[in-house]
Amino acid sequence: MRKGKNKAEKDLDSLKTNYKKLRRLMRTIGLDARIREDDLKRDLLES
User: Fold this and answer.
1) CA atoms within a 13 Å half-sphere pointing along the CA-CB vector of 43
2) What are the boundaries of each domain within the chain?
3) 3-state DSSP percent of the chain in helix, strand and coil, to 5
4) Of 1, 34, 41, 44, whose Cβ has the fewest other Cβ atoms within 10 Å?
5) Measured between alpha carbons, how far is 18 from 30 in angstroms, rounded to an integer?
6) Cα–Cα distance, 5 to 13 (Å, whole number)
7) DSSP 1-47
8) What pLDDT, on the 0 to 100 scale, is given for residue 5?
């Protein structure tokens, strides 16, 4: 069972690493601000 848990932990670490790289890339190319802007607009329209 420990072997399976180690695999799951490695997979989770890999996903976290990939997510961090994706977020950094998005910030670098400016999509982060655009996404926040779109979220704000959607929130305002829903209110």
Assistant:
1) 6
2) 2-46
3) 95, 0, 5
4) 1
5) 18
6) 12
7) -HHHHHHHHHHHHHHHHHHHHHHHHHHHHTHHHHHHHHHHHHHHHH-
8) 77
Residue reference for tokens 């601000």: 33
Radius of gyration from C-alpha coordinates of the chain: 17
Contact yes or no for 43/35 (Cβ under 8 A): no
Q: Distance of CA 45 to CAs 34, 36, 41, Å?
A: 17, 14, 6
What tens digit of pLDDT does each residue of 1-47 get?
566 779 989 999 999 999 999 888 888 887 777 778 888 888 888 87
Distance CA(3)–CA(43), nearest Å, equals 45
